[in-house]
Amino acid sequence: MSRQWTVPFRYKGFRWFFLGQSITTLGDWISYVILPVLLYHINNDPKLIGLLMLCRFLPSIFVAPFVGRVLRKFSTLRVMIAADVLQGICYLMFLYTTNVWIIFLLQILIALGMAFYRPGRVTLIPKLVPEESLLARANSYIFGVSQFMMLLGPAIGGLIFGILGLQIGIVFNAATFWISALTLMFVRVDEQGASEQGAAQSQDAQPQAQSAEPEKTFRAKLGFLIGDQTRQLLLFIVIGDVVGSMGFGALNVMFPIVSSDVFGSPQEVYGYLMSALGGGLFLGTMWGPTLMKKISSDLLFCLAMIAGGACVIAFGWSGLVLLSVAMIFLIGIWNGIQDNALITFIQTATSERGDTADVFSIYQGLISATIAVAMIGSTSLASVVGVSKTIVIMGLIPLLIGLCTVAARTRLREKMGKTNNLTL
């Protein structure tokens, strides 16, 4: 048992990558405390906090079609290192401005860096841990540390801000990204072979370069829409997750409203809910690989979405703090399992074509747009039907989408001649 848990760390590149991830995600979550506090100090307007959050989501939507091509052209590692360096510089620039619009611009640049970094991370993991049987476990470590830092980062950020001041907090936050970039420089990935092969092919087919390039770009943008039944299953899974995320994304704005309007204790209950969510996400992310030994990643994804939607509905009807915290903890577990299963499925389904970054970047852009719509729509709906009914309605979305995805998945699996427990 211990061997299974430690095998991914036997790869030197993965060890360095894990260390870098631990540091950069710490900085990312610290920023969730530092930046809103900074903005609120400059201009005491809560609406600006909402605009700041919007600046976190929008860039990934617009750059999604180009991410895969950039990662292939300049190598995944170099792009990720550049993204870390860029984010560190942008965070440091917050020390030298009190202009709200410059702060928004810096946040957009930071989000652009993350828009390239995150697909690169998903693409890099299979290269660092080439054994497919270890892929789910490696994913759980990389994304599990992010969930762990979700618990630790805001607390550290608040502690640094409270004891050492905002300026020291900003410098510390910037340093985490530069240290992460330094650790990535020790990661070695053999990407040269594919590049040389592509270069040789381009020289042999020089007259056809202009006509071939548009087709390649189109396939890169819509890669998961084209192909056999495996790609069709990938399409159902990705679209299902995007639509289903409306129910889970709405919780981002429902938590403070529930804490205040339902329980009358905005600070304490909100803290309990966020801690429960973070703890559940971490546990679910780490538990996912064990479940995927018995259940295929695509089926596990569907079951986790259904269970998560049911827990959202239960959270909406709950009028007790303890029960609500328990439901959010379960939502976190199912979301962690769902995310791990989805990422593993994307990696395996795209391994043959090598378009993991293309698929994940488009998925990331769609998710960002969906969550933004969910946050706006849920607050509008809550003003009409109330917060509890809104949460129940939002919970029905992933529940129903999960059931539909199971049905579509079953039909496609039957056509592919595989049983439910066969892993792709």
Automatic annotation (TrEMBL):
Q: Where is the Major facilitator superfamily (MFS) profile domain?
A: 8-413
What is the organism of origin for this protein? Tumebacillus permanentifrigoris
Which subcellular locations apply to this protein?
Answer: Cell membrane
Q: Which residue ranges traverse the bilayer?
A: 16-42, 48-68, 100-117, 138-164, 233-257, 269-287, 299-317, 323-346, 366-385, 391-408
Q: Which UniProt keywords apply?
A: Cell membrane, Membrane, Transmembrane, Transmembrane helix, Transport
Q: Can the keyword Glycoprotein be found in this entry's annotation?
A: no
* Keyword Cell membrane attached: yes
- Which N-terminal residues, if any, form the signal peptide? none
- In Swiss-Prot or TrEMBL terms, this protein is called Putative MFS family arabinose efflux permease
Q: Name one GO molecular function term.
A: transmembrane transporter activity
Membrane topology qualifier = Multi-pass membrane protein
Please give the InterPro entries that the UniProt record associates with this protein: Bacilysin_exporter_BacE_put, MFS, MFS_dom, MFS_trans_sf
Which is one Gene Ontology cellular component term of this protein?
plasma membrane
Classification from the root reads: Bacteria, Bacillati, Bacillota, Bacilli, Bacillales
